[in-house]
């Protein structure tokens, strides 16, 4: 019987690799960035994700998908994981995994929700909570290659305590404009009361439709549906709206 041949690069992405934690950093009260060394890593694109597998001593195994936070950098992969109290994997990754420990990775996965440096059209990023992670990889990739493609980011977080990459975003990159929205509590004297994004936020913080930006929306299902709906209602072509959701 003839067998279908798996292309070499696809086969590389489908295999499990052992990754070693080399550094961990606090990103917020709930999130940690895990810096992993992954020998033989085939490389990734900004916006892709990986599968993470944990196996207990008794053989029980479970896996979850996490977006890559870092721009491509050899055999280093950064994952920013937000802890969920009822989660099976995230509490271990954020609270128990220590430098030198091993996990298994498979990937990278995904080819639609990516930004490539050769794209020249403006980029409009809309992130809800930890949905910022793959969009941060795009921002870092832009910086790493010296791209002058203009980016605009709207970032919705519950509160200042839960937002991610605070110092890096506030440091600012030329050509990157960021608008913050807080849904539960905002900083003192913040100009906008706490609340969800709406049409005024999207139109004020983003690109007008006639600029034909590519829009990347990532967050919870509710956030993605709301943000994508606002974009289309404001006149952005649905084919230019790319979405990624979790939960």
TrEMBL record:
Quick one: signal sequence residues?
Answer: none
Domain of life of the organism in this record? Bacteria
What cofactor is needed? FAD
**Residues in coiled coil:** none
Task: Provide the alphabetized UniProt keywords.
Answer: 2Fe-2S, Iron, Iron-sulfur, Metal-binding
Q: Which SUPFAM superfamilies match?
A: Ferredoxin reductase-like, C-terminal NADP-linked domain, Riboflavin synthase domain-like
Gene3D superfamilies attached here?
Answer: Nucleotide-binding domain of ferredoxin-NADP reductase (FNR) module, Translation factors
Respond yes or no to whether keyword Iron-sulfur is given for this record: yes
Q: Which residues form the FAD-binding FR-type domain?
A: 14-115
Q: Sorted alphabetically, which Pfam families does this protein's record hold?
A: FAD_binding_6, NAD_binding_1
Q: Which InterPro entries match?
A: Cbr1-like_FAD-bd_dom, FAD-bd_FR_type, FNR_nucleotide-bd, MRET, OxRdtase_FAD/NAD-bd, Riboflavin_synthase-like_b-brl
Q: What is this protein called?
A: Ferredoxin reductase
Organism expressing this protein natively: Streptomyces nigra
């Amino acid at each position: 019987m003839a067998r279908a041949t798996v292309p070499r690069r696809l086969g590389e992405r489908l295999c499990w690799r052992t990754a070693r934690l080399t550094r961990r950093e606090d990103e917020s009260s709930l999130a940690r960035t895990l810096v992993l060394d992954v020998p033989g890593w085939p490389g990734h694109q900004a916006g892709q994700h990986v599968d993470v597998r944990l196996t207990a001593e008794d053989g029980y195994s479970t896996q979850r998908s996490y977006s890559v936070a870092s721009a491509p950098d050899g055999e280093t992969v950064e994952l920013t994981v937000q802890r969920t109290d009822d989660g099976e994997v995230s509490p271990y990754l954020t609270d128990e995994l220590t430098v030198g420990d091993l996990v298994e990775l498979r990937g990278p996965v995904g080819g639609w929700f990516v930004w490539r440096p050769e794209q020249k059209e403006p980029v409009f990023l809309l992130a809800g909570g930890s949905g910022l992670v793959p969009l941060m990889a795009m921002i870092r990739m832009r910086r790493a290659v010296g791209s002058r493609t203009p980016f605009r980011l709207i970032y919705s977080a519950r509160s200042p305590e839960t937002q991610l990459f605070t110092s890096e975003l506030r440091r600012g990159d030329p050509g990157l404009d960021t608008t913050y929205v807080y849904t539960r509590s905002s900083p003192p004297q913040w100009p906008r009361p706490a609340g969800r994004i709406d049409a005024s936020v999207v139109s004020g913080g983003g690109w007008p439709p006639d600029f034909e930006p590519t829009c990347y929306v990532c967050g919870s299902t509710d956030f993605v549906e709301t943000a994508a709906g606002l974009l289309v209602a404001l006149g952005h072509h649905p084919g230019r709206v790319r979405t990624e959701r979790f939960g």
